[in-house]
Amino acid sequence: MREIDLLKELATGNKEVIQKLYITSFPKIASYIQKNSGDRTDAEDVFQKALLQLIARYKVKSFVIESSLEAYLFGACRNLWLRELKKQKRMVTKEDTIELVGEEDDMTMAVLEQEKWELFQEKLKEISDNCKQLLQLFFQKTPYKEIVEKLDYSSDNVVRQRIFNCKSQLTKLIKNDPRYNSIKDL
User: Fold this and answer.
1) Where do runs of H (alpha helix) occur along the chain?
2) Considering the entire predicted model, what is its pTM?
């Protein structure tokens, strides 16, 4: 079944598609969350929220998933889990900033964060392969000396300058997209 068909079926509540996603995607997501300070219950909650987010977003405005539905779902779950960890940290470290966010507000913020991530990913595809590779290493916190060796640059300074230029190109592409203004402050 094509990704668009899977998404449509998911949005209509097709139990077979939902069950298939639980069988194929949930174990990977549960493993990720359990390796990152969570437990199985957290994974179930996040997976459920991601499915609801996906369905709600599709019903509001149908969209096409560029990668696989499984990869998209994993990304959505990862983003939701990172958001949850950040929220827990804020509650633990600053008791006076405990926020009681409603489930609906939380879902809205998760959808907006997903849209920001998708815009970033889409624009990342538009830059040169060299910039993509360089930024990937940078985002993975690879030391500059290692990047110099891997990509055969002459020095750390050249790598720093090239990273700056690539980030500038990516930022410009993102800011020039019409969707940017509608999601930037959210």
Assistant:
1) 3-11, 15-24, 26-35, 40-60, 69-93, 103-124, 129-139, 144-151, 156-176, 178-183
2) 0.55
First to last CA, the chain: 35
User: What does the domain layout of the chain look like in residue ranges?
Assistant: 1-100, 126-186
For the beta carbon of residue 52, count every other beta carbon within 10 angstroms: 14
Residue 46 contacts residue 77 (beta carbons within 8 Å): yes
Residues with Cβ within 8 Å of residue 48, at least 6 apart in sequence: none
What per-residue confidence (pLDDT) applies to 72?
Answer: 85
The string of pLDDT tens digits covering residues 76-106 is: 899 899 988 888 775 444 444 444 445 555 5
From CA 150, how far away is CA 84, in angstroms rounded? Answer: 35
- 68 is written with which tokens? 């696989």
Distance between CA atoms of residues 173 and 113, nearest Å: 18
Determine contact, residues 70/25, Cβ cutoff 8 Å.
Answer: yes
Q: Can you name the CATH fold of 1-100?
A: Rna Polymerase Sigma Factor; Chain: A (1.10.1740)
Q: Which residues of the chain have pLDDT under 70?
A: 1, 3, 90-111, 184-186
